[in-house]
Amino acid sequence: MNPTTPTEDTIDLKELFYILASQWKTILFAIVVSFFIALCYLFITTHSSKQLYAANALINFNHDQKYANLTDFNQKKQFLTNQIENIQSRLILDSVIQQNPFFNFSVSKIDDKNSNQNLVVKYSQNNLTVVDGNNKFIISNFEVPQRYLDQPLKLKILSPYFQLSDDKGKLLLKSRLNHDNQYINTNNFGTISIHSKDDIQQEYIIKVLSLAAANKQIKEQLSVKETKENSGILELNYTNNDQQQALNILNSILINYDENTNIDPNSIKNIQKFNYLDKQISTTRQNLLDAEVNLKKFTQQHQDFKLPKESELYLNTRIGLGLDLINLQQNLENTLRQNSDTAAVVSQITRQINSQKQEITDQETQMQILPQLQQEYIKLMSQVEINQQYLINLLGDYKKLLIARSGTNDTVNITETLVSPVLSAQPKKYLILTLSLFVGAFLGCLFTLLRSIYQTGVKSTELIEKELNIPVLGTLPLEKKTNNRVDNLTKNTTQWNELRNLRTNIQYALKNATNKVISVSSPSPKLNSSYIATHLAITLSQTNKRVVLIDADLRNGEIAYSFNYTGLKGLHDYLLSTTSYAEIIQITQFENLHCIYSGSNTDNAPELIESEQFSALLNQLSKEYDYIVINTPPILASAESVIISQYTSLNLLLAGFNQTPIQDLELSVERFKHVGTNLHGIILTDIPTGLQSYGYKYFYEL
Length: 702
Known about the structure:
22 helices
């Protein structure tokens, strides 16, 4: 080995790099596919009918004496770990599920997936509202036996009736809408109450989770972690398909955690306040939903309606009066819950409420001058605006109470709670797209390397020379070839320079040979020996030597195509004595280079090659030309190559880098030896650019 030859480890690293570089199309394809999959994922998630929402809260332990007294970092970390485990414990989560009975409830339409895009399910602590286009129904009670939990149930509503059956079609319950506890057929099933004013003819899939399954679902949707190391602040993040439910569940978790970690004398009063607000928020939310549905029906029936500007004053007045009345009623409720003597205050607020109601009545009388459609629109729109504003106020009070409560707690200090609006938890587009590029590149490289490992083709000249004891006379790089036409020949390329080096080795090898006949073959057709033979002949002709190129592949000759030859006469015709010697010699555009093309195809090629006429042709050509280059068919697919080897002085065999197994080369050598000839040299082709440095140049004298 040459002293400057890189070590084995260095060669392996270079080989790895150039193998990846040569397969850049495969890697690029993997990147494009991975990027496309990421785009599809983003499209599906962002256009999904079920949007994902996230509610967040922060719990600060820095004001807790127990945490503050801990000086060791590991002790503080263990303290926070215990709090996280407490938050995610069944003691907390089971209470949350019991306080939100419809959390473990799912509804979907039974017909097709696209129809679920119009299905809206609104959760509350007291009921579940399903809006399906223009239809709406409310489930206020849905108790099923334990054995039917975690199983899909089929709810069929055919107003005024509804029925429930299992996934096998067995009828479980039949009842009327809007009639609680009145069943036609129960089969001792359970208690279900459904209310609706619409004419519904639809089937739905209902699924109720067991307590264990619902607990597991909350854990999957809830994440609790420290904001940053040693910060003493825990971040709670809860995601859900329903915006309000995400808020309700997170707030329930906070309340239950607070109650289980600290019991103080004011806890009962605080719970009463929370219960009151929960009830008011649930009722107001339901009123708002009803008002929005009624307004939507009105706008659909009167699509061209638009409230005149002069009538907007009535609308704004109606909204203001309604909000004032609600505030007075809320003040009255707050006063009545106090323990002190509040009779005088109650009497005063009651008079204000009566006065406010009278103003609303007077305003309705004044609106009688407006057209009926305007009156109806003002009534519907004011209901929406009043309930919406009232709900916002209730949520604000809820947040203030929660913060105030946590502020007096020595154990839990909720410094920030996202109450309303709850943000949609969208996927991180740029992160996903960036990761898809890296994943695609990784998978492309992995596939390329695995394919290279499991391919049995030769990858080094050392292996060939060690196993066959035959020199490698040339190494040709892999270059893009649009076709085999010599008109596209490009000089001053890496491959062209390697062909010139190969020519030098061949000239030296033939220095003392009896003739200058060279055969070029390959073990299999895919290596395209005609391309190498053609370019070898061209390089030899450029040394001011007369060269003739013979295409002896009588079954599938391609050299005529390379030189744009359209004639029919060639070697086959000459061996059949249907044409003369002068007619088969074709002049090319290259000085000193003539060609004998294969001619018409034949099936009896071995017999023609073995004929005395072929031997005589070579003798005559040897007198007129300095070099004779013969392209022969694949050795393992035909017998012509070994027959021709008896007339040549130099037999060359092509081997494709990472393509030709060493066993094929060994079998080819045996074919030559079988007829008493030898294989004199190997040409390693299709080497990835940069690996040619692994080749060795030999100068043999035959």
